[in-house]
Design brief:
Helix content: 25-40%
Largest sheet: 2 strands, parallel
Strand content: 5-15%
Number of domains: 1
CATH topology: Peroxisomal Thiolase, Chain A, domain 1
Structural class: alpha+beta
CATH architecture: 3-Layer(aba) Sandwich
Strand order of the largest sheet: 1-2
Order of helices and strands: HEHEH
Distance between the termini: 26 Å
CATH superfamily: Thiolase/Chalcone synthase
Length: about 100
Amino acid sequence: MQMKEVYIIAAVRTPMGSFGGVLKSISATQLGAKAIKAAIDKAGIKGEQVQDVLMGSVLQANLGQAPARQAAKFAGLPDHVNCTTINKVCASGMKA
């Protein structure tokens, strides 16, 4: 089997907030979409060039199914992009 070269070309994170704070009007998946768009802009690529999205989610309750997929869709990425949600209460963003 031939190995593929893998590149991480950009990584961003969302701001840290508090429960009921200034970010309360933005859903986690919409906030994730903003981070995805920022990573794409930072990398200087087109959304069609993205192959995988890894997104951390500390509290997945009430977000619906597949938060990483939702965020990718909100960010305008094509349906063929692989999306994985890292669901860990501690440091999920760092794991992603």
